[in-house]
From TrEMBL, chain A:
Protein name as annotated: TetR/AcrR family transcriptional regulator
PANTHER family: HTH-TYPE TRANSCRIPTIONAL REGULATOR BETI, HTH-TYPE TRANSCRIPTIONAL REGULATOR RUTR
PROSITE patterns: HTH_TETR_1, HTH_TETR_2
DNA-binding region: 31-50
InterPro entries: DNA-bd_HTH_TetR-type_CS (IPR023772), Homeodomain-like_sf (IPR009057), HTH-type_TetR-like_transc_reg (IPR050109), HTH_TetR (IPR001647), Tet_transcr_reg_TetR-rel_C_sf (IPR036271)
DNA-binding in keyword set: yes
Residue ranges constituting the HTH tetR-type domain according to the UniProt record: 8-68
Domain of life of the organism encoding this protein: Bacteria
Keywords for the protein's UniProt record, in alphabetical order: DNA-binding, Transcription, Transcription regulation
Gene3D superfamilies: Tetracycline Repressor, domain 2
Record Pfam families: TetR_N
TrEMBL record, chain B:
UniProt-listed InterPro entries: DNA-bd_HTH_TetR-type_CS, Homeodomain-like_sf, HTH-type_TetR-like_transc_reg, HTH_TetR, Tet_transcr_reg_TetR-rel_C_sf
Protein name: TetR family transcriptional regulator
Domain HTH tetR-type per the UniProt entry, residue ranges: 7-67
Domain of life: Bacteria
Gene3D superfamilies: Tetracycline Repressor, domain 2
DNA-binding region: 30-49
Keywords from the UniProt entry: DNA-binding, Transcription, Transcription regulation
PROSITE patterns the record matches: HTH_TETR_1, HTH_TETR_2
Length: 202, 198
């Protein structure tokens, strides 16, 4: 009864079940009853963690944001330099829209539901800050051509990444992810051709 | 009902639906709100549209038809297909339709078709520009169009998250300023206007 890990475990199970159900039948068509049934908890237990379906969906999108941070931390840890990190991060997240259920469901919720108004602004601001930071460090390391407007480039790069993700989510197209941001990078980098990092990412 | 009245009622219902969706959002809007706004009975509405979703889909389709007409108009005004492309980008800037396409449950019905429409139009206009020798290289035009549309979609979405009326237009102009010089010949780029048409 007083197991202190039970609350967090139930919460995690509810989020995992939501991801699965949202993926299979969509956010609009998934009922809270279905989520409860899947985890075998009462609706009262669900409401202790999430006051509404929207709150549950926000938790799912937060998992998606966490993936961005985790992948970035992992790549930074690998020590490939700021520019390589930026390319690998962008390519990996583009692939994960197709391959990872949490990323797919989170991105779909973010871009195609009412959650957009709640969390998209913050996400875009964070994303732009991450890109700007990596580009600034790339510039400091001499990896970017002299005189580049890093602020402006970061905004443009983020726009291209967001657009590619939206197109992937909406069209649910398999195969090679779009990389409209790559052309920008080719123009920005002092080294004209950077090998694709996709092959290096399992 | 004579055909003239039918057309008017349908248009009035669509205009009312656009206002209701704008004010309450698609999810919270009701068919009753639309009837009230248009001053028609529910029976009359159902004579034209089977559901709230049908209203939304019809709004998006109507916008697409207007967009096609805008293209014809622009092609009569501008010699360069690239200027037509730039101005058409701004002509997609309808906040209500944008929300229906991306942030409502209607997206599953309309978003993919809308993107396909943008891609084929962009491809078509790029082919026109290539035929006039305006591009730096006539490489893989379908991929070029696909990448461009992704960037424009990104500008729409990022702009929508910002609480400023001109955020989308600013984002679109930013895309054009970086995309066009990389793709078109310098002398062509010099003659293009990338800011919204007045």
């Amino acid at each position: 009864m007083n197991d202190p890990t039970r609350g967090p475990r139930t919460r995690a199970a509810l989020v995992a079940a939501s991801i699965e159900l949202f993926d299979r039948q969509g956010y609009e068509s998934t009922s809270l009853e279905a989520v409860c049934r899947r985890v075998s908890v009462t609706k009262g237990a669900l409401y202790r963690h999430f006051p509404s379906k929207q709150a549950l969906a926000v938790a799912v999108v937060e998992e998606y944001f966490r993936r961005w941070h985790d992948v970035r931390a992992e790549l930074e840890g690998a020590g490939g330099g700021p520019l390589r990190t930026l390319i690998a991060l962008t390519e990996r997240m583009g692939l994960l829209v197709h391959e990872d259920r949490t990323v797919r469901v989170g991105a779909r919720l973010l871009y195609t539901s009412e959650l957009f108004d709640l969390v998209a602004g913050v996400h875009f601001a964070c994303l732009t800050a991450v890109v700007r930071d990596l580009l600034h460090r790339a510039a400091a390391a001499g990896e970017v051509v002299a005189g580049a407007d890093v602020r402006e480039e970061a905004e443009g790069f983020t726009t291209a990444v967001v657009g590619a993700h939206v197109v992937s989510v909406v069209a649910a197209r398999a195969g090679r992810p779009l990389a409209p941001w790559r052309r920008r990078l080719d123009r920005l980098t002092a080294h004209p051709v950077l090998p694709s990092s996709v092959a290096a990412c399992p | 009902m004579d055909p003239q009245t039918a057309v008017t009622t349908r248009d009035e219902l669509l205009a009312a639906a656009a206002e209701v969706f704008e004010r309450h959002g698609y999810v919270r809007a009701t068919v009753d709100d639309v009837c009230l706004r248009a001053g028609v009975t529910k029976g009359a509405l159902y004579g034209h549209f089977s559901s709230k979703k049908a209203l939304a889909v019809a709004l998006v389709e109507e916008h697409a038809r207007e967009w096609a007409r805008a293209r014809e108009r622009l092609q009569r005004v501008h010699r360069s297909p690239l200027q037509v492309l730039v101005d058409l980008g701004y002509a997609t800037d309808d906040p209500v339709v944008r929300r229906l396409v991306f942030q409502s449950p209607v997206w599953e019905e309309v978003a993919e078709r809308q993107l396909a429409r943008w891609r084929s139009t962009a491809h078509d206009l790029l082919r026109g520009a290539a035929a006039r020798g305006e591009l730096r290289e006539d490489g893989d035009l379908p991929s070029l169009a696909e990448g461009l549309v992704a960037e424009l979609v990104g500008a729409h979405l990022v702009g929508m998250a910002v609480d400023a009326a001109d955020a989308v237009a600013l984002g679109l102009a930013r895309v054009w300023r970086s995309w066009l010089p990389a793709v078109v010949r310098p002398e062509v780029w010099a003659g293009l206007r990338v800011d919204p048409p007045r």
